[in-house]
């Protein structure tokens, strides 16, 4: 068990990182409100899966590319920012549920998973997690997978809180006007994450 002691501080670190506001949590709140908790689950699990693959990849060498070539970081920031602005526009202009067409749907599993590779906050979390808590001794593959796995287990209830919070808000909103204000606010908050990314 002493060999696994590194997982405890890593788990506490991930609580602080995943429960605080960020692009994923703002979008989960908006999705929970607009589509309900159950329909938001693919989005939620897509975030976890994408982060797991990203974090493990960083530990096994992808992070070196990110640190060695600053241009990659700049490109990632631009791509992530453009995509976030697109998502922010979609959230802000989403119609109230009573006017929603049948084709309207939340972000799916694969879209949410893929977004993590363009999400600078996920990269920062992954690099900090692996640089700060990955042991130098032991099997590097096993340690990387354990650390990434614990990070996602800890992150699950944290991000689920945001989806649940959004679901609760969705039950309170009644009028089309209140829905437009809410979606506009969520869109603005998503767009505001771009300032954090480019800052």
UniProtKB/TrEMBL annotation:
Record's protein name: LysE family translocator
Organism: Halomonas binhaiensis
InterPro entries noted in UniProt: LeuE-type
One Gene Ontology term, aspect cellular component: plasma membrane
Membrane-spanning segments: 6-23, 44-65, 109-133, 145-169, 181-198
One of the record's GO molecular function terms: amino acid transmembrane transporter activity
Swiss-Prot/TrEMBL keywords: Cell membrane, Membrane, Transmembrane, Transmembrane helix
Principal localisation: membrane
Lineage: Bacteria, Pseudomonadati, Pseudomonadota, Gammaproteobacteria, Oceanospirillales
Entry superkingdom: Bacteria
Keyword Transmembrane helix part of the UniProt annotation: yes
Any one GO BP annotation for this protein: cysteine export across plasma membrane
Compartment annotation: Cell membrane
Membrane topology: Multi-pass membrane protein
